[in-house]
Amino acid sequence: MRRSQQGLSLTGFLIFLMFFGFVAWMVMKLLPAYLEYGKIKQSMKSVAQDSSVGTDAPSIREALQKRLDVNDIDQVKAKDITLRPESGERAMEYSYERRIPLVANIDLVTSFEIKEPAR
């Protein structure tokens, strides 16, 4: 009685390895953009919840710029943040695109939109 072999062939293993290598490469390319987004969102949230920050635009922008500097975010400046009145308070909004070079003339484009209501 002949038993058939079971398992992964060399070709199957190489395809499996290439797929997960590609996924790992994409994660390494995209992760910094998403980490930056999280830092910007957290900075805006902390300014919105800070009771020592005034309600006027210059004091909000100054407090936000300090937090962006602490988090080492150079892509965004506090002057780029839009402050809009919303139900008697100011809401901070920021939307941006991030281009990540992939190969030659091919880029990954990620779009982020952050809206944080002030206290």
Radius of gyration over C-alpha positions, nearest whole angstrom: 23 Å
Q: List segments where confidence is low: pLDDT < 50 over at least 5 consecutive residues.
A: none
Largest pleated sheet: 3 strands, antiparallel
Q: State mean pLDDT (0 to 100 scale).
A: 89
Number of helices: 2
Percent in strands: 25-35%
What is the global morphology? elongated
Number of domains: 1
* Structural class label: alpha+beta
- Which strand order does the major sheet show? 1-2-3
In which range does the helix fraction lie? 40-55%
Structural notes for this entry:
This protein has 119 residues and is of the alpha+beta class. The chain has one domain. It has helices at 10-49, 57-70; strands at 82-86, 89-103, 106-117. The chain has a three-stranded antiparallel β-sheet with strand order 1-2-3, covered by helices on one side. β1 and β2 (89-103) form a beta hairpin. The longest helix is centred in the N-terminal third of the chain and has 40 residues, at 10-49. This is DUF4845 domain-containing protein. Keywords: Membrane, Transmembrane, Transmembrane helix.
